[in-house]
Amino acid sequence: MKVKTYKTRSLHEGLQDIKRDLGSEALILSTRSVSVRPPFRLFKKPAWEITAALEEKMAPIAIPSPREARARQGELSINDTPRLLPKGEAAAKQPVRVSPSTTAAAVAPARIVQRDPRMEELIAEIGDLKKSLRSLTKAIPGKSESGGGMFAELVGQGIDHDFADHLIVTASRGNPAPSEQRSRVRRLLADQLIIAAPVELYAKTRVVSAFVGPTGVGKTTTIAKIAGHAAIRMKKKVALISTDTVRIGGHEQLARLGELLGIPTYGCADVSTLKDLVASLDDRNLILIDTPGSSPSDVSRLSKLEDVISGADAKVHLVISATTRSDDIMKIVSRFERFSPTSVIFTKIDETDSKGPLTGDLLRNELPVSYLTNGQRVPEDLVLPSADELAGYVLPLEAVI
Question: Using CB atoms within 10 A of its CB, is residue 383 exposed (0-12), middle (13-18) or buried (19+)?
């Protein structure tokens, strides 16, 4: 028997691979949903592990003729051989006659019946799979009592179809009650989210952070909020630096906010002096750098901004508005990848009624999240997110009818 194990993104893909490699007569021994972490990636990806087997056909057994069977048993007769034996010798070598039934029993191989533990495991797997499919069917739109279902909720909030299927099937093992199944899906969803530590607030060593992103997403206000929390609540010595010499009033806005918070603010029109400026502020244990907003399509400005960040030797936060469309978020993440951001900050979550896609965007783009902002008040409207909270944006404890 030829046994082979496949790891694929979906059951359908796995079955296609098995059919191509082993043919349509292959037997599925086991199916198991697993989570794998691709190289150099932060998030685990849902996958299926499928074991299949193909029983190799044995060569046909040649059935000996009666003469061959008798010869194998040592039987000789006058009709079987032309050699004449002397009477005494013939009597001594008189053969023992073997009946046809005895010959057949001697020739036919013994049939051994043996229990295959893999088949028993397969039967158990099929039983579990049936239960999971029944639970999944209840979650598919049109099948649940509410007429919606978790699958529709997840997909409607921007969760990938295959990932939604993986979450529900995994949570359905053991055929739990609907409320328990929903809680399991939420926990599984939360497990996939990465919350970046707010080092600006809690680090014991000096931190230099820069904030990049498109225009109009609220970078300057976000910096002021973080600075206020660090200075007022964490008693840190903070300095603000503005490199925004492009936007009219860009530096002035940060300077006003710094004045309100009692935090010194510096302008740096000459990018080449930024490194020296940062080094000179050795009495500050937190330095926050504001940068000019850049369109993801403006490659020239992005290149200049990259020089600024590298000169400051700073960790980078990518700032994105929660009102941005998912397709545009993918473009922003792709274009700003050159800055190697350590986390993303979503702003203006108070300006959207649908926060679920925000979590879907984090998962789809494999982004850790460090802060959320939910208003214009400085420094109050700054949120330190939790994985459970973000999962709740997608799937509240009670289904939305």
Answer: middle
